[in-house]
Write a structure and sequence with these properties.
heterodimer; A: 13 helices; B: mainly alpha
Chain lengths: 239, 111
Amino acid sequence: MNAALSFPTQRAAFFGGMRAAASAPALAIGASFLGFGALVRESGLNLWHGLISTATTWALPGQVAMVELYAVGAGLLAVALAVGASGSRLLPMVLTLLPLMRQPGIPRWRYYASAHFIAMTGWAISMRVAPSLQPALRLPFFEGFTVILWSATMVGTAIGFLLPGVLPTEVTLSLVILTPLYFTLLFLEDLGGKRKRVALALGGVLGAPFFMLSPDWSLMLTGLVGGSLAFWLTRKEKI
Amino acid sequence: MQDSWLWPLLVLAVAALSTYVWRGLGVALSGRINPASPFFAWLACVAYALLAGLIARMVLLPIGPLIEAPLAARIAALAACVASYYLTRHVLLSILLGGAILALWLTFAQA
């Protein structure tokens, strides 16, 4: 997607966000929830449970952890710890996106509501697009973009739940792999400056080994170690 | 308690809150962060490294249905997708090509 966007009004920015999402992003993100829908069914939960989880948690790794723990009869504390550990990755994302979207006159509740929709795709696209957008248009663009993604995940969850075994395994797997493929291109589309490149490269190298060390905290560990190292290596670059 | 129809809803609520707490905390703290500061640049590095790590993990050590596809097939799909992206600059086409490569690999490897 082109990083240089402009819209005449906030409403146009909202619709522009919707249009930007209604292609590869919605397909790739919707497809990733097919697997979740199937997992919900296998775990003895019903379709509504799956849809409520997608609507209210909206962070796939945490949702998968929740369903797996439910299936083995884990307690609430175990669920809170595992899902909380997985969700910690959202903190640095919110802390870097929100300052770009803050505007005088926007009521605080709107930030709290929009933050629910911060996840990898909307975050990466907005981080890229925001600097070229007028500040007042950034939040509406983000909201339009993520409302489409959120809808796609609801559809993906329902299809995954309702159609297990209908599609051949080869087809299901080739749909599910669209997500990591799309995420890869999401960052290759705009590698940004040297600092971002080094951070992405180090994270890519450290991600799998750290996961073998500690599945729950591996992402935060990868971010803190890889990100700090990248920051230090590029300390001579301008901020 | 775990036999009650309320139990799954309780688990769902705990999962939703344990996730939102990070988003809400982020909003609460973000007002004090200056996007032009070194701290912001460091946070962005942390976020980018973390997400790159997540993507690498999804391809190399998947936790969902992709476990069933061999590592070589996943890497072939990713390589085809990236090569296609650099040749065509078309995102949708390139991810679909990667998906198709995986489907073909699985079909012929089983035959």
